[in-house]
Write a structure and sequence with these properties.
mainly beta; Rossmann fold; 6-stranded antiparallel beta sheet; 6-stranded mixed beta sheet; 11% helix; disordered N terminus
């Protein structure tokens, strides 16, 4: 039997429909915790603890080198097109500050260098440049100056690191690209004019003191040997023979000392070079050759032996030394890595799903079903928009773009600067590359995807429209009726466009771990469980300097509108989609309230809708913003953590701070709120921390609004023992450390098969709850000192009884305990998308009065001091009393709400998207509960350690439920950010 009850929809007061953003102050941006585009530059702090990266995705990121943990995302003001892309990053010599720079989109106008605190990621100052783009940065070793290579003919600028005053300016005949510092403090700068210049500061003034001209054109990067005797140069171009060379020059004489040349890399380059910290290895990499492989050359110095390895799946943009015998490498696939100077090298994969190739995108005739990523290491994925179904494989009935026509010929289109349509060259921007094309129906024209734009061109090669894109268009296709265009872009997004004029209708992003989010540019969205963190609003503050970022989930109540997403492609207009979705809600409410049967309702005539232009970015909608003023990574022998912070908020003001340690609430021993909430005044808080490692999340609360969390990494180290004292007495044994009380398990299990209204009846929900409770009861004396449970099934599972059990669960579990809630039965959503669990006495027409609401579930689970977990199998079929749900997911909103940082609950849900849960009597349980019980009994102990962790259980559930149901049901686990893996079940008694 299929189980998914469709709710009767409750009436609601419709919210205003004004969009959240007003260009250019606000933009929606993908945020997947990794770069979404080419990483141009990489830098390492002097102590090797931190790595910084700068990217075309308009962010810089600060990482902890030891475990590659993202510490902070650094943002600068951005705009349309290229404005805000970052091409340079460098640490100050003491590692305490970090500078980033890039482009404002127009190289002829002033640019900026932004300086951040490397410890807490706070923006410190902005330094103005008279030109740009900045393609490389260097902080001089005396800490006094920043040097910037500029594109075009703007050459080189050197500015004071504190004030930004320009102390040296020189124009080049071609872009400046290479920049390095010799041990004596002099600088080397290379340009694509074939010259390498040496500059030296004398008497506080910089001046050029020498230069050399390279035999090979386009010297792209310079690496200085640690002893300062030599420097290596990597080139964008090749020798006349076609070979690629790395040149090593004598630093004192500026003469060529040695050349390493390589054949077999035709079409490629070795434009990135680095010298290891011990000076014994010279490494080089760059662009792929004709075979598509990215090669790393590691040359022993001075012996000259060479090791060649495949190192990445896309161009290596930059390399720097890391430690004594490692390198840090940045790639066009959005990733970075640490690689050894000798030994095996792992190929660096991408941070987004690889959708390169003109045929990588396939779709049905309506563009509602599609597949992508066939060229990546994970294989193809398919997505069905109406069902919100993401699955592996290309599926059937999907085709790539039509590119063959007897009446219209397109040539020179693949990675070319001047594609030809019917023998006529298409007008392109400088350095704009054609990547893919698709023919319109009846060969009426061409959709052309490029490295910068999506273009519609008529059959004579004349432009109809062009649209700027967030990432290179790697593939494009057109619907059979010619009304829609779908593009796949290098940043991992897929975009639906209106073919008539290029209006962006809808966007999809699928993360590498297969979470997905759909959205319109007005901010309406739908997201899979755990995916709300993948998208957010970038806000340029009105001061022109500062930037805020808000994850999309902060606006869930108003902008989570799956019903709007459902209408976008049909209406070809996001604003009309909103009107249509609201009208459908109104019609359903009237149908339920006025009469059981109604005549068809004729919708209103919808006039053309202009996108709203907002003078103010609705600051009353924006949550507070928290910044940490202490370091993001803290190591201490004390168990007391004191953090300084600042808050920026308008109205309402933040009243308090919340702290979560490993996802769970902790009490503050001291809290001092800032006197002003302007982002400058300091506050402080103190909390007692556990031993070992932990993730600390700070949030500000302003009424019902919560800030996005700011994370601090905690590492407790035992205090050093006192030095030994000479004595003849025998040593006293060290006092034993008193262990804390053993954790307890508190469980509420609710299952309803026998409803008071017989039409709602299910088969196995009550048995599912009973069986789960029995399995967990066996944990008493194993992982938990005791197990206390309340089992509510059928007639005992009334609304009042369930609410009473939730109150008991909340009150009972202490900070060291675990609390679990298992619910099986019907779950429905009202017109607001709010979830309700239906107990025995529930009435779908009176949900607020008879069912357990999302807010009641959240209030109890979020307040639990210890670990909190929800197991939900409530997407049960049997559309016996309703006309269809208003929203796409039965548990999506609830799961995303519970797993947000302010709530911190782990959620295991039985199915994803619009799937229904399956139960069969011969299984003895529903598919989800059957797999859940098997996993808890040991099948999910993959490492054979005698315990089942939540991550192990999640993996087992995904595999087992898909196998049981023939891929018809996919369970989903959502884990709050900052929650580490931990055991849920022990398979043997503790000793």
């Amino acid at each position: 039997m299929w189980r998914c009850l469709r709710a009767h929809l409750l009436a609601m007061a419709l919210l205003g429909s004004s969009a959240l953003h007003a260009a250019p102050l606000l933009q929606l941006r993908v945020e997947a915790g990794e770069h979404q585009a080419t990483v141009r530059r990489i830098a390492v702090s002097a102590d090797g603890a931190l790595v910084a990266t700068a990217s075309d995705d308009k962010t810089a990121r600060l990482w902890r080198a030891a475990d590659r943990r993202l510490l902070a995302t650094l943002r600068v003001p951005i705009g349309d097109g290229d404005q805000g892309r970052l091409y340079g990053v460098t640490f100050s010599p003491d590692g305490r500050q970090l500078a980033v720079a890039g482009t404002n989109g127009d190289p002829a106008t002033p640019h900026r260098i932004d300086v951040f605190d490397a410890g807490n990621a706070r923006h410190l100052r902005t330094l103005q440049l008279d030109a740009g783009h900045v393609v490389r940065l260097l902080w001089t070793r005396d800490g006094r100056h920043l040097a910037a290579c500029l594109s075009g003919r703007d050459g080189l600028r050197i500015v004071a690191a504190d004030s930004g005053q320009t102390v040296y300016s020189e124009a080049f005949a071609a872009p400046c690209f290479g920049l390095a510092e010799l041990p004596d403090g002099s600088l080397l700068a290379s340009g694509f004019d074939g010259q390498i210049r040496q500059l030296r500061s004398q008497g506080g003034r910089w001046q050029a003191v020498a230069s050399l001209r390279t035999e090979i054109a386009d010297p792209q990067a310079i690496a200085v040997a640690p002893d300062g005797l030599h420097f290596a140069v990597g080139y964008r171009s090749r020798l006349p023979s076609g070979d690629i060379a790395i040149d090593v020059f004598d630093a004192g004489k500026l003469t060529l000392a040695r050349r390493f040349s390589f054949g077999g890399l035709r079409g490629g380059s070795l434009g990135s070079v680095a010298w290891s910290g011990d000076g014994r290895t010279l490494a080089a990499s760059g662009r792929a050759g004709a075979d598509g492989q990215i090669v790393l050359k590691r040359i022993t110095w001075p012996q000259g032996s060479v090791a060649s390895d495949i190192v990445a799946t896309n161009t290596v943009q930059d390399m720097v030394p890391y430690g004594v015998d490692w390198f840090a490498l940045a790639s066009s696939n959005g990733s970075w890595a640490l690689i050894p100077a000798a030994g095996a090298v792992s190929t660096l994969g991408g941070s987004v799903i690889d959708i390169r190739g003109a045929d990588s995108l396939r779709a049905d005739e309506t563009l509602r079903a599609l597949s992508f990523g066939a060229g990546g290491t994970q294989g193809a994925l398919r997505f069905e928009l109406p069902r919100r179904l993401l699955a592996s494989g290309q599926g059937s009935g999907l085709d790539s773009a039509r590119r063959v026509s007897f009446s219209l010929r397109v040539t020179q289109w693949e990675n070319q600067f001047q594609p030809q349509i019917a023998g006529r060259a298409v007008t392109m921007e400088p350095l704009e590359l054609s990547r893919a094309y698709a023919l319109l129906p009846d060969s009426a024209g061409v959709m052309l995807g490029t490295s910068r734009t999506l273009r519609r061109v008529d059959r004579d090669g004349k432009p109809i429209w062009s649209a700027r894109v967030s990432g290179e268009v790697m593939s494009v296709t057109v619907s059979a009726d010619g009304r829609l265009v779908l593009s796949a872009q290098a940043d991992g997004t897929l975009r639906w466009w209106r073919a008539s004029d290029g209006l962006l209708l809808l966007s999809l992003f699928v993360s590498v771990d297969q979470r997905w989010v759909l959205w319109t540019e007005q901010g309406y969205y739908d997201a899979s469980v755990g995916a709300e963190s993948l998208l957010g609003w970038h806000v340029n503050r009105s001061d022109g300097v500062g930037v805020d970022f808000f994850s999309i989930g902060r606006f869930r109540d108003k902008y989570l509108r799956p019903d709007v997403i459902d209408q976008v492609l049909a209406t070809l207009d996001p604003q009309r989609a909103l009107v249509a979705a609201d009208a459908k809600r109104s019609v359903r409410v009237q149908a339920e309230v006025v009469a059981p049967v109604m005549a068809p309702v004729t919708g209103p005539v919808i006039p053309p809708v202009q996108a709203p232009v907002l003078a103010d970015p609705h600051r009353q909608l924006l949550p507070p913003v928290v910044s940490v003023l202490t370091e993001r990574s803290v190591s201490s022998a004390s168990k007391t953590l004191q953090l300084r912070f600042a808050i920026r908020a308008s109205e309402p003001r933040a009243q308090t701070m919340l702290v979560r340690v490993n996802g769970r609430p902790v009490d503050l021993t001291e809290l001092v709120m800032p006197l002003r909430q302007d982002g400058e005044a300091n506050g402080s808080l103190t909390v007692v921390m556990p031993e070992g490692q932990a993730e600390v999340a700070l949030l500000a609360q302003a009424g019902s609004l919560f800030s996005d969390p700011v994370f601090v990494s905690w590492n407790w180290r035992p205090p050093a023992p006192p030095p030994p004292v000479a004595t003849t007495a025998p040593p006293k044994p060290a006092p034993a450390i008193a262990a804390g009380p053993a954790p307890r398990l508190f469980l509420v299990a609710v299952g309803v098969s026998d409803y008071a209204r017989k039409a709602y009846a299910l088969d196995l929900a009550a048995k599912d709850a009973s069986d789960f409770a029995a399995v967990m009861a066996a944990q008493g004396g194993r992982l938990y000192a005791s197990v206390e449970s309340r089992l509510l099934t059928d007639r005992r599972a009334t609304r009042a009884a369930v609410l009473d059990a939730l109150a008991w669960l909340q009150a009972s579990a202490g900070p060291r305990d675990t609390a679990m809630l298992f619910i099986a039965g019907h779950g429905v959503n009202d017109d607001n998308g709010q979830y309700f669990f239906m107990g025995h006495d529930a009435d779908v027409d009176r949900l607020a009065a008879t069912a357990i609401s999302e807010s009641q579930l959240r209030g109890s689970l979020a307040a639990i001091k210890g670990k909190a977990l929800l197991f939900a199998d409530t997407c049960h079929a049997g559309n016996v009393i309703g006309s269809g749900a208003a929203v796409s997911q039965e548990l999506g909103r609830l799961s995303n709400t519970l797993t947000s940082a302010e709530n911190g609950v782990i959620v295991f849900s039985a199915s994803t998207g619009r799937q229904e849960s399956i139960e069969k009597k011969n299984w003895g349980n529903g598919a989800f509960t059957k797999a859940l019980i098997e996993g808890q009994r040991g099948a999910a102990d993959f490492r054979k350690e005698g315990v089942v962790t939540h991550q192990g259980l999640s993996y087992f559930l995904g595999q087992e439920v898909r196998k049981l149901t023939g891929n018809l049901q996919t369970p989903v686990t959502a884990v709050p950010v900052g929650v580490v893996d931990y055991p849920m079940v022990a398979l043997v008694a503790a000793r």
